[in-house]
Design goal:
Length: 148
């Protein structure tokens, strides 16, 4: 009986010690940093590139097939010397113009297209075989969320 009580006490003590305590409370999430370690600014242009050289280029727009050009999907350039199109980030709640981790935002290509849809990114066309969504254009700026 005594050994059971000691064992239970040790388990509870370990569970309490192993549980992280909230450190931040209501603090803002960390800012997103660029490759130079600077904070991403809402409304500024950025190129999204692979971390490792030789793994393709930046992000661009492409039709889903040769005979269907609109809407446009977000794809990666095949060649590493192509930066793709610049993007801007528009957080739903911009705090001092900084883009923050784990917050809702719109991502928009700064590019002209022949399609009627906007160049704001959204998730669309779930591929059940792959278990993945496509990132496409036609989202609503100022309305970030899972379906925009």
């Amino acid at each position: 009986m005594r050994s059971t009580l000691v064992l239970t006490s040790l388990i509870l003590l370990f569970a309490f010690i192993a549980t992280p305590l909230p450190v931040r409370g209501n603090a803002s999430p960390d800012p997103v940093l660029d490759i130079a370690g600077k904070q991403l600014r809402a409304g500024s242009e950025y190129y999204i590139l692979p971390v490792t050289k030789g793994q393709g280029g930046g992000l661009t727009l492409a039709g889903r097939s040769n005979n269907k050009t609109c809407p446009l999907d977000v794809v990666q350039e095949q060649h590493s010397f192509r930066n793709g199109f610049p993007v801007t980030f528009s957080p739903v709640n911009p705090k001092k113009g900084v883009v923050r981790e784990s917050t809702d935002l719109n991502i928009k290509f700064d590019a002209a297209t022949s399609c009627a849809q906007s160049t704001v990114w959204k998730l669309d066309n779930f591929d059940a075989a792959l278990g993945q969504w496509l990132v496409t254009t036609g989202g609503v700026e100022g309305n970030p969320g899972p379906r925009t």
